[in-house]
Amino acid sequence: MTSSFKKIFIIAGLALAVQSAFAGDSVPAAISPGIAAKLMVRGELQGLQVVDLRSQRKNDVMVVQAEVTNTDVKDLRLYYRFRWTDAAGMQVGDGEVWKPMTFLGKQTQFIKSTAYGPQATDFKIEMSSEPR
């Protein structure tokens, strides 16, 4: 291995160590990178975590269900909305309003939404939270 590759690995390792030191007890918004790719988080979710995400087509319309867990003992309020897009990445429909949901300490709940029509082929879930 050349010395430049060694330097790159050392720098990358130090960057990860610094990042984990400053992360503290922060809970990631999603349990996996695949789920995280479907989320648009505004701020920090403060203990809320998306642990499962499923989508399927029913009657040629996309339906999505996400399982969200409060990993903290404090009550939290989640605000969420779905953004539906077509195959070209353009928004489908007028957009949804923010929906509030209260999570008690250590509670798990499901959020579910149905696309506006068959032209929706993809989605993102926009989320924000605050203490209750």
Layout of secondary structure:
Elements: H1 3-23, H2 33-36, E1 39-41, E2 48-58, E3 61-70, E4 76-85, E5 99-103, E6 108-114, E7 122-131
Features:
4-stranded mixed β-sheet, alpha+beta, 2 helices, Immunoglobulin-like, 7 strands, 132 residues, elongated, 3-stranded antiparallel β-sheet
Describe the 3D structure.
This protein has two helices and seven strands, in the order H-H-E-E-E-E-E-E-E. It has helices at 3-23, 33-36; strands spanning 39-41, 48-58, 61-70, 76-85, 99-103, 108-114, 122-131. Strands 1-7-4-5 form a four-stranded mixed beta sheet, with no helix packed on it. A hairpin with a 2-residue loop joins strand 2 (48-58) and strand 3 (61-70). The longest helix is centred in the first third of the chain and has 21 residues, at 3-23. It is elongated and about 40 Å long. 16% of the residues are buried. Mean pLDDT is 87; it is low at 14-24.
Number of domains: 1
* Second-tier CATH architecture: Sandwich
The CATH topology, please?
Immunoglobulin-like
**Count of discrete alpha- or pi-helical segments spanning 4 or more residues:** 2
Q: Give the CA-based shape.
A: elongated
Structural class: alpha+beta
| Highest-level CATH class | Mainly Beta
N/C terminus separation: 54 Å
Concise description?
19% of the residues lie in helices and 42% in strands. It has 132 residues and is α+β, with helices and mostly antiparallel strands.
